[in-house]
Write a structure and sequence with these properties.
By secondary structure, the chain is mainly α. The chain is built from ten helices and no strands. This is TetR family transcriptional regulator.
Length: 192
């Protein structure tokens, strides 16, 4: 594997742009090379197979979506409350909609992983690590509930993001109102 970390990241970013724009079918090593403006064969030098390329894109998405440690520290220093949970959800929506192509690329990768076992393993490891990190933050913050409630949150937020960044059901609800409802219903369900 080629060692230039900056070039690898630039190629992965180019791959994410291709994936978001054309879907998994349009993602080829040549398309990544063209998008990155590098000589043909460069992407295949860094990512030897299609699964390696797709897996690297999943890892790169998570790197770029990584929460700001300062924001997490500020949130984590607050008293556990419905407001803290709501602000945490708002932060997730803000991070994932600020770069809509990244979220679209992640959705594409998750769908492609359903058809590619090697990608499912690579991407699944990355997604599960993110889920574990969310559970750890939730527990460390003293918020009510645990792993089950965080899983419910993931399921709900994934649907919201799909609707915001894909073809919408156009229900007409403000996304922030939806986030507030998610938070109050999840926290309220745990308090009972």
């Amino acid at each position: 594997m080629a060692k230039n970390v900056e070039r690898r990241a630039a190629l992965a970013d180019a791959g994410l742009r291709v994936l978001a724009a054309t879907g998994a079918r349009g993602l080829t090593h040549r398309a990544v090379d063209a998008e990155a403006g590098v000589p043909t064969g460069t992407a295949s030098n860094y990512f030897r197979s299609r699964d390696a390329l797709l897996g690297a894109l999943g890892e790169r998405i998570m790197e770029r979506f990584a929460p700001d440690e300062r924001v997490l520290a500020e949130l984590g220093a607050r008293e556990p409350s419905l407001e803290l949970f709501t602000d945490y959800l708002r932060y997730i929506v803000e991070r994932t909609t600020r770069q809509p192509d990244l979220t679209r690329a992640l959705i594409e990768l998750r769908l492609e992983a359903a058809r590619r076992p090697d990608l499912a393993r690579i991407l699944g490891d990355t997604l599960r690590r993110g889920y574990r990190d969310d559970v750890a933050f939730h527990l460390a913050s003293g918020l009510p509930g645990g792993a089950f409630e965080v899983a419910l949150l993931h399921y709900a937020m994934d649907g919201l993001l799909l609707d915001l960044l894909g073809t919408s059901i156009e229900a007409g609800f403000d996304p922030d109102d939806v986030v507030v409802a998610f938070a109050s219903r999840l926290v309220g369900a745990v308090d009972r």
